[in-house]
Amino acid sequence: MSAFLSRRIINGAAFSAVTLLLASVGCSSTDNPLGGSCGDLDTTNRAQATLKAYGDATSALATKAKEVEAKWLNICNAVNADLGLDTSKSTASEACAILNTRVKAALAKGVTVTLDVAFNCEASVSAQASCEASCKVDVDCDVQAKCEPGKLVVECNGSCSGSCDVTAPSVACTGTCSGSCTSDLEVQCAGSCEGSCTAPTWSGTCDAGCSVEFSGSCSGTCDGTCDGSTATGAQCKGKCEGKCTGKASGSCKAQCTGQFSGGQCTGSCKGSCSASGGVECKGTCNGKCEVQPGSASCQGSCHGTCTGEAKPPTCTGKLDCSGSAECHGSCQAQASAKVDCPPPQATLRVDGDAELYNALDKHIDDIGQAINLTIALKDPIAAVAGKTVGAFSAVGDIGLAGAACFSSSLQASAEASVSINVSVSASASVSGKAG
Q1: Ramachandran bin of 12, using left for φ above 0, alpha for ψ from -120 to 50, beta for the remaining angles
Q2: H/E element holding 120?
């Protein structure tokens, strides 16, 4: 885990399922998709403006939750197709249950599956700032003074006195990369290496195979034993021990002479590195690049003062202003619903089942992105799911229109909870731990 939250999602039979809770929906600025109307709210009334922000947040999060569920349906059916399994199911729960059964069968035979995903999602600071302007954060609240230390940021287009965060699918970075850093330089990578590894032994995946003391899944031909039986130049669908000619996923006592991925490099890594706590980068960052500090030119989120700030500072953490708590929380949720999740670095290792490895590896990017979106939405959706009407009534009179909007939001939240639980099970299906 790290500043970029590198998540170990799967670890074979020892896998501990990641608990991913996604839930919530609500009313938009017009009609709630599940009934009821939020369009009649008076946004000049602070209580109703606060409730509208909540409705907009839950509606946006609901849309994201549905997107995640649909993504899992497509992933599981695609993997099932590559495994020769049933692809006729039209719901994620059914499609992923089929994959889950296949993975469980492999684990029962001693196969291990390991998947690492570098978390590199960032909530939209601009969406939060726009929401809070409409939601009427207490004018008496000094955001700079009342914000949780280290969580005050400003959209900047100038020079920044502190660190500057730039997030994009691919950005030039000289600083700390939360995600994965790709560079032409050889570096010591205390994390997951993808590229070339100078170490004389490795544990991961090498597309050039292994010539000495290999153990794992071989996508080429195996010389040695396959599931305990003698194998000479044969295809091995199970566990190969000896020598692998072709893509090899497992452990080896010879240097990887091709592209290395899915493991730690004890030597020097040249290519892409993602490490716990982020990695010092002089290259291209896939995720968030944190430039340290001083008066650096900043076109991103500035943690400090900015000479060319685009909007007033925004608190991305806890804001200690009681009158603004509900507004602030809902706006943070809106920011999370507009999360930026660049394609993550995801690395896979399967020991003992070449067919399963090939099927999962073919869709590794989609699996990694679905996992990251789920993780990114987990906390904000859980936060809005437990709200009561009393939280908004405490701000002021919400009126009949507000009560109707809140009621429909609760119904929407219940519907979203069902969708989210499907995504939870789907994410566990890849490990064989669902059900």
Answers
A1: left
A2: none
* H or E stretch at 370: helix 364-385
Residue 200 lies in a domain: no
Quote the tokens at residue 158: 């100038």
Percent over 90 (pLDDT), the chain = 21
pLDDT of residue 241: 94
DSSP assignments along 155-199, one per residue: EEEEEESSEEEEEEEEEEEEEEEEEEEEEEEEEE-SEEEEEEE--
pLDDT digits (tens, 9 = 90+) for 153-189: 888 888 888 888 887 666 788 888 887 888 888 888 8
Residue 192 falls within a domain, yes or no? no
**Degrees to nearest 5, angle at CA 330 with 328 and 332:** 70
Range of the domain at 122: 7-142+322-429
Q: Based on the structure, what is the number of domains in the chain?
A: 1
* 295 or 144: which leads in pLDDT: 144
pLDDT in tens, 15-50: 222 222 222 223 333 344 433 467 788 888 888 888
pLDDT at 164: 86
Is residue 190 predicted with pLDDT exceeding 80?
Answer: no
Of 411, 283, 397, nearest to 49 (Cα)? Answer: 397
Instruction: Answer yes or no: are the C-beta atoms of 177 and 279 closer than 8 Å.
Output: yes
Tokens, residue 51: 């409730």
Longest dimension (CA), the chain: 79
The count of other CB atoms within 10 Å of the CB of residue 90 is 8
Tell me if 350 is assigned to some domain: yes
Q: Is 84 left (phi over 0), alpha (psi -120 to 50) or beta?
A: left
Other CB atoms within 10 Å distance of the CB of residue 97: 17
Rounded Cα distance between 301 and 163, Å, is: 8
Q: Is 270 inside any structural domain? A: no
φ, ψ of residue 130 to 5 degrees: the values are: -65, -40
Residues 188 and 333: beta-carbon distance below 8 Å: no
Most confident of 222-236, 259-273, 295-309, 414-428: 222-236
* Average pLDDT for 294-315: 77
**What size, in residues, is the chain?**
435
End-to-end distance of the chain based on CA atoms, in angstroms?
Answer: 26
